[in-house]
């Protein structure tokens, strides 16, 4: 277990989360949105595959356009909300733009947005 779990500030935040916030979230699940991001590198494209014996396997891969791509999206109880794919890694400017231009217009007043671990 992480050593931070026993620190008083962490214990206080955990207690606040469990005692105050979780009950409200359970009452209003339709107002919860979780944001997460995932990424890929096009160098991860498979170079080999399988097909039936005697048949040729065809596939496509980017040619000389290797690089990172990041997908960020909200997830609510009805499905995916406000997905955005960007070329490159997520940074502060891209995140701020996502929140302002893509996610915020999709939200209703009173929506609770929960972020995954984000670097400071």
Beta-strand content estimate: 25-35%
Secondary-structure content class: alpha+beta
List segments where confidence is low: pLDDT < 50 over at least 5 consecutive residues.
none
Characterize the largest beta sheet: strand count, sense, and whether it forms a barrel.
Answer: 4 strands, mixed
Mean pLDDT: 87
Measured distance between first and last alpha carbons: 22 Å
Total beta strand runs: 4
What does this structure look like?
With 120 residues, this protein is of the alpha+beta class. It has a domain of 62 residues. 27% of the residues lie in helices and 27% in strands. It is built from two helices and four strands, in the order αβββαβ. The protein has a four-stranded mixed beta sheet with strand order 3-2-1-4, covered by helices on one side. It is elongated. The mean pLDDT is 87.
Give a quick summary of the entry.
The protein is α+β, with helices and mostly antiparallel strands and 120 residues long. It has 2 helices and 4 strands; from the N terminus they run αβββαβ.
Provide key terms for this protein:
alpha+beta; single chain; 2 helices
Topology:
Layout: H1 8-27, E1 32-41, E2 68-76, E3 79-87, H2 92-103, E4 112-115
